[in-house]
Specification:
The complex is a heterodimer of chains A (about 325) and B (about 475). The radius of gyration of chain A is 28 Å and the shape is flat. In chain A, about 80% of the residues lie in helices and about 0% in strands. In chain A, strands 1-2 form a two-stranded antiparallel ribbon. Chain B has about 475 residues and is α/β, with parallel strands linked by helices. Chain B folds into two domains: about 210 residues, D-Maltodextrin-Binding Protein, domain 2 (3-Layer(aba) Sandwich), CATH 3.40.190.10; about 200 residues, Periplasmic binding protein-like II (D-Maltodextrin-Binding Protein, domain 2). In chain B, the strands form four sheets. A five-stranded mixed β-sheet of chain B has the order 2-1-3-13-6. Classes of the chains: A mainly alpha (about 325), B alpha/beta (about 475). The interface between A and B is large, with 36 and 38 residues. Chain B: Belongs to the bacterial solute-binding protein 1 family. Chain B: Keywords: Periplasm, Signal, Transport. Chain B: It comes from Jiella sonneratiae.
Chain lengths: ~325, ~475
């Protein structure tokens, strides 16, 4: 071997770890590439929506298209319809999340002890979740038909006659919330049931030995320990409820009158029916901002609870 | 194909025998009804080829794709499509969507500039968006081009009000069918609004079809209060433009009310005029007293189904809605009667606002000339006659079909249908003021009607609010 060969071999030996190191450095980027692509895939329509929201842009009036900057947003400030949309969307969200949470927790507590019956009941209770919400709405539309619907018949038996369900402004919100509760309570139930069954047994056994009252156990032990699960379930449902479209649209198209013009229904009508791209995009950006703020609150609380739980464990 | 059948088709194409004779001889040859319909469609298309003066094979090998709504008109076209394929050597594929989502699909396809579809079904109101947006083609240049248009296609045979109603200049408020108007689509089949009623119920109650709005309200209330287990009058009520355009607008304009007025060249909403308030008040009262309980969810389907199921005594809606119930597989099949209706007792004639299913050409089509061939064929006398006589393509848009003896004979089986058409047709057209915010305006109008029927707001106050809101929207859109 010549000295030149030695030098080459030495260089190669020195480069080998360098290449390996370089590869090791590249690995995280390669692994995160799919996530990066998905992020870009999300970012593009998001940025496009921001852009459209700054335009006066109706497909039926292309000649009037142009930048109005924040006019679409500023118009919202003085637009009663917009504030009603905010109000009814938040009301719908609060009602559905609270009712589903209470019912879901109640059912989960009833089914907490693993047994054949409870496991079977849990499985059967999941069935509404298997029905597409739009189909569930059509089913409920038939059941609540004042002329031949089974539910109209049943409420008639208890003396409530001429109840018009989703076709009357005074009962429309109640009706769509009812359908939402029927469809999504099992979701909360299954999450909380999983949480309940995974809680450590020792605190409950100690409480039982000390003869602690059941209400005290529930409020001071079960509920605090279950809180991360409750927050997670609430966050998911909150995100879904504030973006509700299919149930409300299939049952009422946002009516009667403007009773149920929640965000997504209003944005959908603005784009697909009225071809008002600018207003539709601005509405969705406001919805995004509200959703983002609410989920931040939830996530911060969830992290705080987790830290507290870790602290307690340490 | 057998020799005898081929000769039979040739004889019909050469007009040596009439259609009735053709059908009789086909039956003698033992051909099924479906096959006879197919043969008839093909023979009519042969006739089209013979008299056209254009080369129907010019675009042989080209493939076209259609965007269709699930509707008896689309069914009639699909049943006859082989005739077009044989005539031109072109291939045609199609997507069919239910009406609930159809126009969303059209908006999505056209707004994206997709060249997937060459032609599509549309209504005239929709072209007030599609046309100015540049999504569909002005067909005037094709209609006037004799090198591309068959000599016997005969545009003038299409009912004049329909030709006018499907053309617009794009200037908000400018009348339909004016000199500068662009022909955004070709009328395909259409519907008038009149009374379709349950004959048995009316006979048993010894009442005649209503002749004006007061009479209608009285009779509807009578039916609701009777022991017939039906409500008096079915009309649409969903939160949509579809609630405004049939019976409501037909009655509204019969009293001289307008949707907009033009003041100094600017459109102003006019739903709170005295005539509008008076009519709307009566309409709301009519629904409250004798309409369906869940009226605010009622679309075309519910209105029609209730009449067909014997749940309503009558409807003031599209005549063809009653026709489909009278001829379909319904409980009240054969028991529906038809009557022309002028809401205003002082009106000279009924004024039905029309809905026209039409065909338009996508501006993004890569085969525009070939698509024009398809549009000609689909709106030809031959196909219109086939659809009207053998399928359910009523109301036909061509005068020649209305004059056809076979068609008349078929329609005579529907009590009063031809009479209501004859009485209604002269005053029928689109009565909306064409403007690009059509769907915003009519949805707000329907929502306000819902509030008034639910007694959330008094009629006069509600209409004042509606006008203020629409003017505000017009201003925001830069139209005022």
């Amino acid at each position: 071997m010549t000295s030149a060969d030695h030098a080459t071999a030495g260089r190669a030996a020195a480069e080998r770890p360098l290449t390996r190191r370089r590869r090791r450095n590249l690995l995280p980027y390669l692994l995160s590439l799919p996530a990066l692509l998905v992020t870009v895939w999300i970012i593009i329509p998001f940025v496009t929506a921001i852009y459209y929201s700054l335009l006066r842009y109706r497909l039926s009036l292309p000649q009037l298209r142009g930048f109005v900057w924040f006019d679409n947003y500023l118009n919202f400030l003085t637009d009663g319809r917009f504030w009603y949309t905010v109000e009814v969307s938040l009301l719908y969200t609060v009602l559905t999340v609270v009712i589903e949470l209470v019912l879901g927790l109640g059912i989960a507590l009833l089914l907490q002890r693993p047994s054949r019956f409870n496991n079977l009941a849990a499985m059967l209770l999941l069935l509404p979740l298997m029905v597409a919400p739009a189909l569930a709405s059509l089913m409920w539309k038939l059941m609540t038909n004042p002329n031949f619907g089974i539910l109209s018949y049943l409420v008639g038996l208890v003396g409530v006659t001429n109840f018009r369900w989703a076709s009357d402004p005074s009962s429309a919100l109640f009706t769509v919330v009812l359908v939402d509760v029927w469809v999504y309570t099992p979701f909360i139930m299954v999450l909380l049931l999983a949480g309940l069954r995974s809680l450590p047994k020792q605190p409950f056994e100690a409480a039982a030995l000390d003869g602690v009252p059941r209400t005290f156990v529930f409020f001071r032990i079960t509920l605090p320990m279950l809180m991360p699960y409750i927050l997670t379930a609430s966050l998911f449902r909150m995100l879904e409820s504030i973006q509700q479209f299919d149930i409300v649209y299939a049952m009422t198209q946002g009516g009667p009158g403007n009773t149920l013009t929640v965000f997504q229904v209003e944005a959908y009508l603005q784009f697909f029916q009225f071809t008002n791209v600018g207003r539709s995009a601005a509405l969705l950006m406001v919805l995004w901002a509200i959703t983002f703020a609410l989920s931040n609150v939830f996530v911060k609380n969830w992290l705080r609870l987790r830290e507290r739980a870790h602290g307690a464990a340490a | 194909m057998y020799e005898k059948e081929r000769d039979l088709i040739a004889a019909l194409a050469r007009r040596q025998i009439g259609r009735r004779d053709f059908l009789r001889r086909s039956a003698k040859l033992g051909l099924s009804t479906a096959l006879m319909s197919g043969l008839m469609g093909q023979s009519l298309t042969h006739a089209l080829a013979a008299d056209s003066g254009i080369d129907w094979k010019k675009h042989q090998g080209t493939s076209l794709k259609l965007l269709l709504n699930k509707h008896p008109y689309a069914d009639a076209m699909i049943a006859d499509l082989d005739a077009f394929k044989q005539l031109t050597g072109m291939d045609v594929t199609y997507d069919v969507f239910p009406e609930d989502v159809y126009f969303d699909k059209v908006t999505a396809a056209l707004s994206s500039g997709s060249s997937e579809y060459d032609a599509l079904m549309t209504g005239a109101y929709q072209t007030w968006t599609y046309g100015p947006a540049g999504w569909i083609v002005d067909l005037k240049e094709y209609i006037n081009d004799s090198s591309k248009t068959a000599g016997d296609w005969d545009w003038d045979d299409v009912l004049p009000n329909l030709r006018a109603s499907t053309s617009w200049s794009g200037v908000p408020g400018e009348a339909l069918g004016g000199d500068n108007a662009k022909q955004w689509c070709l009328p395909w089949a259409f519907e008038l609004n009149s009374i379709s009623y349950n004959k048995r119920a009316f006979d048993e109650m010894k009442i005649d079809p209503p002749t004006n709005l007061d009479d209608l309200m009285d009779k509807a209330a009578q039916i609701t209060k009777s022991d017939k287990n039906m409500y008096g009058i079915g009309v649409r009520g969903s939160r949509s433009w579809a609630t405004i355009h049939p019976g409501f607008l037909s009655g509204y304009v019969n009293f001289g009310a307008q949707d907009f007025t033009v003041e100094d060249g600017v459109l102003k909403a006019a739903m709170n005029s005295d005539a509008a308030k008076a009519f709307t008040g009566q309409w709301v009262k009519m629904i409250q007293e004798s309409g369906p309980k869940n009226w605010s969810t009622y679309t075309w389907y519910q209105v029609g189904n209730d009449l067909g199921a014997g749940a309503s005594g009558m409807i003031f809606d599209a005549d063809i809605l009653g026709y489909f119930q009278n001829n379909g597989d319904t409980k009240e099949k054969g028991n529906i009667g038809f009557h022309a209706f002028a809401a205003n007792p002082d009106a000279k004639q009924p004024t039905p606002n029309v809905w026209i299913w039409s065909l338009a050409m996508s501006n993004f089509s890569g085969n525009k000339d070939a698509t024009w061939y398809f549009l000609q064929w689909a709106t030809s006398k031959q196909h219109d006659l086939f659809g009207a006589v053998k399928m359910d393509m009523v109301n036909p848009v061509r005068q020649s079909v209305w004059d056809d003896e076979d068609f008349k004979k078929r329609m005579e089986q529907n009590t009063g249908y031809l009479e209501q058409f004859t009485a209604s047709a002269p005053g029928s057209k689109i009565y909306f003021t064409p403007q690009p915010l059509f769907f915003d305006v009519t949805t707000a109008w329907a929502a306000m009607l819902q509030q008034m029927v639910a007694k959330e707001v008094p009629v006069d106050e509600g209409l004042d609010q509606l006008v203020a809101s629409i003017n505000d929207q017009m201003q925001q859109a830069g139209l005022q």
